[in-house]
Design brief:
alpha+beta, eight-stranded mixed beta sheet, four-stranded antiparallel beta sheet, 14 strands, binds ligand DP6
Length: 326
């Protein structure tokens, strides 16, 4: 009744922002991401007939309140499916400092979905695991797979056609990501609340939804053709469009700090000097630079020299989520 799983974080090149159903956590747009080797979460789940309530340890410290509630809500789905009436002890560790503002619900819920279903004796397919992970966090569905991954929007009200699928595994293409950490503070508005605010108040919401299928089509094609310039340009476009939508919410959501903006300019300047590098940014201030292995050193040095950049993490593409032991 116990299992340990590991899952890697991911970043979206075509972004997910908005939900078509909040309760089932169904996205309002599809998305395409790459899985990141250097950022992962290892989670052990142990169902215990003698304990009466779930417990959660994050990097060795016991968590209660909101964080524990989110885990218990998730485990309820697993218990129901396995017809199990036992509390669980969940121990989760990130291989990167949690304080770095990189704590990712994507790797966390993918690892939890895999470890908890295995511990409960359920034998779910990867497709089913993506659907389950999505209930914990939309981006987590994509972390079930390595390499290049697409999350499908689906149309059914039950959400069983809203799953993630691998486009190519990590051996398809050696892309690199450099993550410039610009702040260790926790963001003020999380993705879930931010998405609700954008849907309810941003005048750009309708056009965001309407323009999404074209972005997804183009990104799929760019990956198929290994057209790095197209992938990069589309990634910047989707990122800036998502942030325009967030900025246009009321009150506007500003996820960037000054260093994030300096980083965007620095990357565009690098491009003018011949490096093939593009940026993307999620709902926070860290800047992610996408490049080929030959440009890693130049990009890393440039990012490290921007005042306010605390450190730069270099990563290649990562693998599928997997069970690593009891
Ligand atoms: C900006 O997956 O964290 O990173 O489903 O509410 O948990 P919830 O949201 P979450 O949102 C991720 C938003 C994003 C873009 C992306 O990863 O596609």
């Amino acid at each position: 009744m116990q299992a340990t799983a590991i899952a890697h974080s991911n970043i979206a090149l075509v972004k997910y922002w908005g939900k078509r159903d909040v309760k089932l956590n169904l996205p309002a747009v599809g998305s395409i991401s790459i899985t990141l080797d250097a950022l992962s979460t290892k989670t052990k789940v142990q169902f215990d007939p003698n304990s009466t309530s779930d417990t959660l340890f994050l990097n060795g410290n016991e968590s209660t309140g909101k964080e524990l509630k989110r885990i218990t809500t998730f485990l309820e789905m697993v218990r129901k499916r396995a017809n199990l009436n036992m509390a669980a002890c969940v121990e989760s560790e990130n291989n990167f400092p949690t304080a770095a503002g990189l704590a990712s619900s994507a790797s966390a819920f993918a690892a939890l979905a895999l470890a908890s279903t295995e511990a409960a004796g359920l034998d779910l397919s990867e497709n089913e695991l993506t659907i389950l992970s999505r209930r914990g966090s939309g981006s987590a569905a994509r972390s079930i797979y390595g390499g290049f991954v697409e999350m499908h929007l689906g149309k059914n009200p039950d959400g069983y056609d809203s799953f993630a699928e691998q486009i190519e595994d990590k051996s398809y293409w050696d892309l690199r990501v450099l993550i410039a950490v610009t702040s260790e503070k926790q963001k003020k508005t999380g993705s879930t609340d931010g998405m609700t605010l954008s849907r309810d108040t941003s005048p750009y919401y309708k056009s965001w939804i309407g323009s999404s299928p074209a972005d997804l089509n183009e990104m799929r094609q760019a990956i198929r053709e290994k057209d790095f310039q197209k992938i990069g340009e589309l990634s910047e476009f989707s990122c800036l469009k998502m942030h325009a939508l967030a900025l246009g919410s009321n009150p506007g959501l500003i996820y960037w700090n000054g260093t994030t903006v300096d980083g965007m300019h620095a990357i565009r300047e690098l491009r003018q000097h011949g490096s093939e590098v593009y940026f993307t940014i999620d709902a926070g201030p860290q800047l992610k630079a996408l490049c080929l292995p030959s440009d890693v050193d130049t990009v890393k040095k440039t990012l490290e020299n921007i005042p306010g950049v605390q450190r730069v993490i270099h990563t290649a593409l990562g693998d599928n989520a997997r069970i690593i032991g009891e």
